[in-house]
Amino acid sequence: MTKFGIIGAMDDEIEMYLEYIQDRKETKWNIFTFYEGKFQNHDIVLVKSGVGKVFSSMVCQHLIDEFNPDMILFTGVGGSLNKELEIGDVVVGVDSVHHDFNAIPLGFKRGQISYTDYRFFNAEQKLIDLAFKTKLEKNKIIKGRILTGDQFFTQKDKAEHSYLVEELKGDCIEMEGAAVAQVCNINEVPHLIIRTVSDKADGTAVEDYNNFKSIVAMNSFKIVENIIKTFL
Predict the structure, then answer these.
(1) Taking the alpha carbons of 213, 123, 152, 19 in that order, is the dihedral positive or negative?
(2) Is 13 a catalytic residue?
(3) Annotated catalytic residue: which of 43, 89, 199, 208?
(4) CATH 3.60.40.10 is held by the domain 3-230
(5) To bridge 184 with a disulfide, which of 16, 90, 161, 189 should be the other Cys (CB 3.0-4.6 Å)?
(6) pLDDT tens, position by position, for the chain (232 residues)?
(7) Which residue among the candidates 13, 89, 171, 174 is catalytic per the annotation?
(8) Cα(193)–Cα(95) distance, rounded to whole angstroms?
(9) How much is the pTM?
């Protein structure tokens, strides 16, 4: 039996899982609560990390150290950088990168962590394949690149940071994924980042995000649920 770790940044991104976890027990660590139990006939550990790269890194490392998951899934919402995506569509992250890591003056590429080869963090192919077996009634699922940084972007921000698309070829922008991917990569734990578009990082980004984050998180949930249900 495979044990899955599931991380979401906010209450809206994890609360639907809590309804379905069987034999649930809680473990506190500092300000974080880890929920253990059964979900779709597999062991899972669910946790809300909080927003941003530091929180998500801390929580991911503790999850690995204390609960020893075989796979880690990060689930939640993000902003679209891809013009073909609409609110509710899902980006399954083939890879992810820190868009705000910039050591270009030292001779490194944007997103490359200085003095290492770490730049793009590849997700687990088996998890990607299983994600695409999910059927969503009203929205599409694409393979894409997740860009991570500690900023919430609007249209003005996108215009001033054209490298997000032109250089880094991003499809979705958010605030935790690459941090989790980096921790998983170093610990050799397979991972996948799943982001449902809650806003288009445009002039209505804040309004869209607040209006749709709880609704569109359901699409991420459906994909995670199907991955775990069909995982052999």
Answers:
(1) positive
(2) yes
(3) 199
(4) no
(5) 189
(6) 899 999 999 998 899 899 999 999 999 999 999 999 999 999 999 999 999 999 999 999 999 999 999 999 999 888 889 989 988 899 999 999 999 999 999 999 999 999 999 999 999 999 999 999 999 988 999 999 999 999 887 666 666 788 999 999 999 999 999 999 999 999 999 999 999 888 665 555 455 556 665 566 788 899 999 999 999 8
(7) 13
(8) 8
(9) 0.91
